């Protein structure tokens, strides 16, 4: 029981990191990054490759930085030049990018699956209310909380965060006030994609690394984002916690239906509140 | 304001009279029928085999293109309807003992009914959420069939028991590329014609108005929910017809056909072909399959060139082949007018 609860929290934590990145990018560019799952996968593989040289924590940072650079390039060469085009064009382009990145991962690392060991200090189990539990999973949970708090602190307390929130409300008016919105866009999309890389690297010791490892979790984070109300951090955190629990308990009590359970939740939410849990904010 | 995502769709100029347009339709459809009937004798057997498969997936692409054209929505999950049609007809034909004709009818009705139920839920969340949800549903359905052991064979799929004749046509000739190509060609031409007529009907025009500006359509007094549900159901039915024909042709279904990669490919076909006219996605499908048949040397690494091609098309020429054809025909007509002085 407690094990499932914790597993749900850990998975929910990963979903929070991933969907925060999606929400961040969506807020500014009104586009859902369909390549986000591929960035998650890429983050895991980057961590795998550099962990031998810089250790696990260095690899975690490297994945974040590498994917941030990818995100900055994405903003510079895709989102910014195409910001006056219909959102559907940009959406399809990110889908094309998903194909490219997935294939590149296969080209560079091949199709076989790899595993990444957790950091040496956090390999064993730990005692949680009398039940042994892998300590690394708790590390992932802590990491998710730290990432979410840090992101909110950045957005609420710093000047650049203020600019980012202003640009998400009205990018033109923000530019007129003298804010360099190009730089804000690069930063926001960079951090958003970096979070995908961070989530991938953090998840790497929990499961096998394959080129399609991002497919399942990105679907869940899309569901989280829709249930949460697309542009809302609070909504997606609540939805991620819910979905994490549903997946964890479903895996034990209704294993054949786990893939459908998120959609039952989603259908229920959409019938009652078509714009999601925090829907009022976007419409 | 809800977020509406729609591509720049060229609304074709209705400058010419309806009589000359009808004449042009007639010329094009007669031409298309002639090409369809002659092609098996003119082209190599391989091209015919590839093309008849392309036309089956062309229906899937038409469904994807139709919903984009009439609601501005991008579906990343139409392979669900393509695959479910195959599964439901396959299961009914193999295990229920019903005559195949009845199995086909019931199977299609079941899929369309399910599509209507799904549409009533997801049409409530317009724009970008729709795309994410269709993709998510597709992955879930794929996982469901992939894991389902027993009769449907899980990841391996299963062979369908087909009788000697289907609607009076011998099954062996239905499964030969030469005959199937002609059948596919004719059904495609009829469907393209029907979709073009739908566009000009009251409902078709209303859906275009809703796509352009849902708020304004509602203020005029139209209900904007049900027309969108109908558009979704029609597009799912198109995909289901394709899936049905594909299943009868191969006599086999596996979860692969309802994977989200199939949906993604259909999206690519529709976008490369262009969605402004009903023939666009079909042209896109033909191009996709004929090119893929030539680049087998790429092996497993087809996603990289495909993704790059998609990005280039979307960035440089987002109206696809339909837009290109419009551009060329406008140029020719302009030149002709200048010549006549």
Description:
The complex is a heterodimer of chains A (283) and B (341). Chain A has 283 residues and is mainly alpha-helical. Chain A has one domain (2-212). Chain A is built from ten helices and two strands, in the order H-H-H-E-E-H-H-H-H-H-H-H. Chain A has helices at residues 2-29, 36-79, 87-109, 135-157, 159-169, 171-176, 181-203, 213-228, 233-253, 261-272, and strands at 125-128, 131-134. A two-stranded antiparallel sheet of chain A has the order 1-2. In chain A, a hairpin with a 2-residue loop joins strand 1 (125-128) and strand 2. In chain A, helix 8 packs parallel to helix 10. Chain A is globular, with a radius of gyration of 19 Å. Chain B is mostly helical and 341 residues long. Chain B has one domain (50-340). In chain B, helix 1 (18-42) runs antiparallel to helix 7 (177-200), helix 2 packs across helix 11 (260-273) and helix 2 (45-71) crosses helix 12. Residues 1-6 of chain B have low confidence and may be disordered. Chains A and B meet through helix 3, helix 8 and helix 10 of A and helix 5, helix 11 and helix 13 of B.
Stretches of chain B where pLDDT is under 50 for at least 5 consecutive residues are 1-6
The pair of chains with the biggest contact is: A-B, 48 and 46 residues
What ranges of chain A have pLDDT less than 50 throughout 5 or more consecutive residues?
A: none
Structural domain count of chain A: 1
Number of domains of chain B: 1
Q: Share of helix among residues of chain B?
A: over 70%
- Return Rg of chain A in Å: 19 Å
**Could you tell me the radius of gyration of chain B in angstroms?**
20 Å
Number of strands of chain A: 2
H/I helix tally of chain B: 14
Largest sheet of chain A: 2 strands, antiparallel
Helix and strand content put the structural class of chain B at mainly alpha
Intertermini distance of chain A: 39 Å
Widest sheet, order of strands of chain B:
1-4
Order of helices and strands of chain B: HHHHHEEEHHHHHEHHHH
Report the biggest beta sheet of chain B as strand number plus sense, adding barrel if it closes: 2 strands, antiparallel
InterPro entries (chain A): ABC_transp_permease, BCAA_transport_permease
Membrane topology (chain A): Multi-pass membrane protein
Subcellular location (chain A): Cell membrane
Protein name (chain A): Amino acid/amide ABC transporter membrane protein 1 (HAAT family)
């Amino acid at each position: 029981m407690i094990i499932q609860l914790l597993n749900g929290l850990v998975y929910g934590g990963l979903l929070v990191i991933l969907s925060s990145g999606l929400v961040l990018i969506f807020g500014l560019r009104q586009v859902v990054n369909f390549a986000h799952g591929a960035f998650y996968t890429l983050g895991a593989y980057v961590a795998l490759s550099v962990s031998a040289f810089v250790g696990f924590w260095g690899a975690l940072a490297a994945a974040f930085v590498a994917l941030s650079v990818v995100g900055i390039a994405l903003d510079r060469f895709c989102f910014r030049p195409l910001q006056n085009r219909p959102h559907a064009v940009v959406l399809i382009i990110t889908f094309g990018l998903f194909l490219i990145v997935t294939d590149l991962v296969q080209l560079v690392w091949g199709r076989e699956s790899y595993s990444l060991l957790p950091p040496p200090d956090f390999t064993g189990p730990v005692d949680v209310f009398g039940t042994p539990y892998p300590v690394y999973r708790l590390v992932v949970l802590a990491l998710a909380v730290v990432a979410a708090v840090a992101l909110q602190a950045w957005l609420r307390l710093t000047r650049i965060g203020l600019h980012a929130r202003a640009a998400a409300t009205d990018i033109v008016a923000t530019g007129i006030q003298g804010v360099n919105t190009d730089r804000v866009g690069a930063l926001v999309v960079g951090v958003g994609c970096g979070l995908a890389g961070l989530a991938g690297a953090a998840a790497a010791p929990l499961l096998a690394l394959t080129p399609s490892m991002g497919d399942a979790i990105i679907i869940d984070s899309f569901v989280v984002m829709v249930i949460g109300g697309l542009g809302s951090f609070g909504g997606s955190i609540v939805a991620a916690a819910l979905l994490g629990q549903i997946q964890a308990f479903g895996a034990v009590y209704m294993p054949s239906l786990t893939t459908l359970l998120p959609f039952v939740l989603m259908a229920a939410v959409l019938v009652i509140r078509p714009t999601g849990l925090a829907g009022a904010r976007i419409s | 304001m809800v977020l509406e995502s729609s591509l720049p769709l060229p609304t074709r100029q209705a400058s010419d009279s309806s009589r000359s347009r009808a004449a042009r339709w007639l010329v094009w459809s007669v031409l298309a029928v002639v090409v369809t009937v002659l092609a098996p004798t003119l082209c190599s057997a391989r091209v015919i085999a590839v093309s008849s498969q392309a036309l089956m997936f062309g229906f899937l692409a038409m469904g994807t293109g139709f919903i984009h054209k009439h609601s501005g929505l991008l579906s990343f999950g139409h392979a669900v309807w393509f695959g479910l049609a195959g599964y439901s007809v396959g299961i009914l034909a193999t295990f229920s003992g019903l005559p195949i004709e009845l199995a086909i009818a019931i199977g299609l009705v079941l899929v369309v009914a399910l599509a209507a139920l799904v549409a009533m839920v997801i049409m409530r969340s317009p724009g970008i959420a729709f795309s994410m949800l269709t993709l998510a549903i597709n992955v879930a359905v794929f996982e469901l069939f992939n894991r389902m052991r027993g009769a449907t064979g899980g990841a391996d799929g299963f062979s369908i028991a087909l009788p000697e004749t289907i609607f009076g046509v011998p099954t062996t000739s239905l499964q030969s590329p030469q005959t199937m190509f002609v059948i596919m060609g004719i059904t495609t031409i009829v469907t393209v014609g029907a979709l073009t007529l739908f566009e000009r009907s009251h409902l078709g025009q209303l859906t275009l108005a809703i796509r352009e500006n849902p708020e304004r359509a509602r203020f005029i007094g139209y209900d904007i929910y049900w027309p969108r549900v109908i558009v979704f159901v029609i597009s799912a039915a198109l995909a289901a017809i394709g899936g049905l024909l594909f299943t009868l042709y191969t006599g086999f279904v596996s979860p692969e056909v309802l994977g989200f990669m199939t949906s993604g490919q259909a999206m690519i076909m529709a976008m490369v072909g262009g969605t402004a006219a009903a023939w666009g996605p079909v042209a896109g499908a033909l191009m996709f399959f004929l090119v893929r048949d030539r680049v087998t040397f790429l092996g497993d690494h087809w996603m990289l060139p495909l993704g790059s091609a998609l990005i280039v098309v979307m960035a440089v020429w987002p109206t696809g082949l339909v837009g290109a054809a419009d551009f060329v025909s406008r140029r020719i007509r302009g030149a002709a007018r200048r010549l006549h002085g």
